[in-house]
Amino acid sequence: MTTGSGDVSSIRIYDDADTLAAAAADDLAESARRACAERGRFRVALAGGNTPRLLYTRLASPELGAGIDWRRWHVFFGDERGVPPDHAASNYRMAAEALLSRVPLPEANVHRIRGELSAETAALEYEAELGDVPLDVVLLGMGDDGHTASLFPGTSALDERQRRVVPVTSPAAPHQRISLTFRALNEARRAVFLVTGAGKAERLTQVLAQRADGAADPATLLPSARVRPHTGIVDFYADHAAAARLPEEFLDG
Ligand code: 6PG
Prior knowledge:
The chain is an alpha/beta fold.
């Protein structure tokens, strides 16, 4: 089911996390093909956490990966934990295991946030690496507190207007994080949220309701309601469990 609501381009609902991952992988591969045709390369920021793992695994699958020109992909990260790349909590490690180690993506095209450094040093270095060329797609998860990337409610990172990458102290361990800011996320051509599981249902409903309220003061919104690319393209992928509390008006299109 594909609908739209408020400032959201589409809300795409799938039976379960597997079918969601398959659809999102096909969508991402198509976005990449289009970017490569138009601009010669595809710049994507990967999400961390657990939800995207299935998507990355699907992208690396022979049936899908074979049709992808990996040489033209440039992979960035929406955020990283303040840990080395081989640490169990590293977003890079998860992506490397599920995708990057399994496809012929040139190593120089993988732009890792160096979580092993101090968060401020890593943020400054990454801001230079990211540059000011917009990302084509930024993949994002949503925490059950409404955070996205490492933009947690109540943190000063939400107020950052100039920097594209900042150090963040997260309420959730690992507490030291590095995150793209709303400036960087909103400069992307497209944001794609991946939300699964019953535990996210209430918060997803709240976030989409906030996004539908055009009059709300951004400072009062949850971080996942504040990712608004200037292109206006924001798509939500949810499984039935996460979409279970959505009111009918979000599903009518
Ligand atoms: C991280 C992610 C974070 C994640 C959400 C959802 O570093 O953990 O950037 O924003 O996407 O916390 O995580 P799950 O997919 O594990 O629910």
